[in-house]
């Protein structure tokens, strides 16, 4: 063990600057694989014999000479590589912290600069959370969580509480992060998919539905098959405004018209949300009684056991939330339609 710690294992004593430091990134002698492979590829390109090269036209040869650092006067600058001390970017195989588990890869986390920018956009500039999530390619729930945690952090700083900054910096130094570079050509790096749709509970039963061949079966028709109040997929996604923007772009609207329509849609959605909150508050004040305690407030609401509906499974019945298992895969149940209406 001591021989390994003083030999190949000494590279793990200190994390690489701006990079992960997992075991899969090194060989048994403690050499970083991606730097060795990069040097080997560069050497093979330089030592390639002339008889093996393919014939190139004049334009391709000129472009190749311009991209060759050995033939240009200035060295190509890579800001990301300079931040890592000249170390190349991690490959997918370098993101596996467990050598015996090839299926697990470490996912990137938000950098401290990106978290601060998300908080500034929402809390300081008062931008809508959905717009910020779409601009920075961060899930809307993650943006909301960052804003809440940053608010608590700044509150603690104002109260004079100590923060575990060294621990946070050490953890971020060992994990892949999504950077934010405001003074570069591409300041925003996509962090994760932001418009993935979750599987709705009403879409889980197995349904055989006859459809007419003379008309188009749309997403709205499919949603109505599962439930009469279920919205189609393009309206249940977290950021439906991205679909609207793409549709307006395909219709030929210029940037100013698209921006104007988006602002009007945002104002309408904000008014509808405020009205929904107002109605919910009025309903709670009218139907619920609040008893304040030392630590928790208890809410009481009158419930009638008679509101079970015609089939005994009404949504206002007691115990409705516990649900009932679907019978679509139960043996003996008739699943194939016998008539077309």
UniProtKB/TrEMBL annotation:
Biased composition (Acidic residues): 68-81
GO molecular function, one term: structural constituent of ribosome
Region listing for Disordered, in residue ranges: 33-101
GO biological process: mitochondrial translation
Entry GO terms, CC: mitochondrial small ribosomal subunit
Tree of life domain: Eukaryota
Compositionally biased residues, Basic and acidic residues: 38-51
Name used for this protein in its record: Uncharacterized protein
Organism: Baudoinia panamericana (strain UAMH 10762) (Angels' share fungus)
């Amino acid at each position: 063990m001591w021989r390994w710690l003083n030999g190949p294992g000494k590279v793990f004593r200190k994390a690489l600057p701006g990079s992960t430091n997992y075991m899969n990134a090194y060989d048994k002698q403690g050499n970083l694989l991606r730097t060795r492979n990069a040097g080997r590829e560069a050497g093979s390109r330089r030592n390639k014999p002339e008889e093996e090269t393919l014939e190139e036209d004049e334009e391709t040869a000129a472009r190749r000479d311009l991209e060759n650092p050995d033939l240009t006067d200035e060295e190509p600058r890579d800001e990301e590589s300079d931040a890592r001390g000249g170390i190349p970017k991690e490959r997918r195989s370098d993101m596996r912290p467990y050598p015996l588990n090839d299926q697990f890869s470490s996912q990137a986390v938000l950098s401290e600069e990106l978290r601060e920018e998300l908080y500034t956009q929402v809390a300081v500039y008062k931008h809508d959370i959905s717009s910020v999530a779409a601009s920075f390619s961060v899930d809307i729930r993650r943006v909301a969580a960052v804003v809440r945690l940053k608010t608590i952090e700044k509150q603690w700083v104002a109260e004079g509480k100590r923060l575990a900054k060294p621990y946070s910096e050490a953890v971020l130094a060992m994990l892949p992060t999504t950077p934010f570079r405001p003074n570069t050509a591409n300041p925003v790096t996509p962090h994760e998919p932001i418009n993935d749709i979750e599987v709705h509970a009403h879409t889980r039963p197995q349904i055989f539905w006859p459809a007419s061949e003379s008309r188009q079966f749309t997403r709205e028709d499919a949603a109505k098959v599962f439930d009469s109040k279920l919205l189609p997929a393009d309206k249940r996604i977290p950021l439906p405004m991205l679909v609207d923007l793409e549709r307006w772009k395909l219709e030929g609207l210029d940037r100013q018209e698209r921006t104007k329509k988006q602002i009007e849609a945002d104002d309408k959605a904000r008014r509808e949300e405020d009205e929904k909150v107002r109605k919910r508050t009025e309903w709670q004040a009218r139907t619920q009684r609040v008893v304040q305690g030392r630590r928790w407030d208890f809410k009481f609401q009158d419930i009638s056991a008679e509101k079970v509906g015609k089939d005994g499974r009404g949504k206002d019945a007691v115990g409705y939330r516990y649900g009932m298992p679907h019978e679509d895969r139960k043996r003996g149940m008739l699943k194939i339609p016998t008539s077309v209406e």
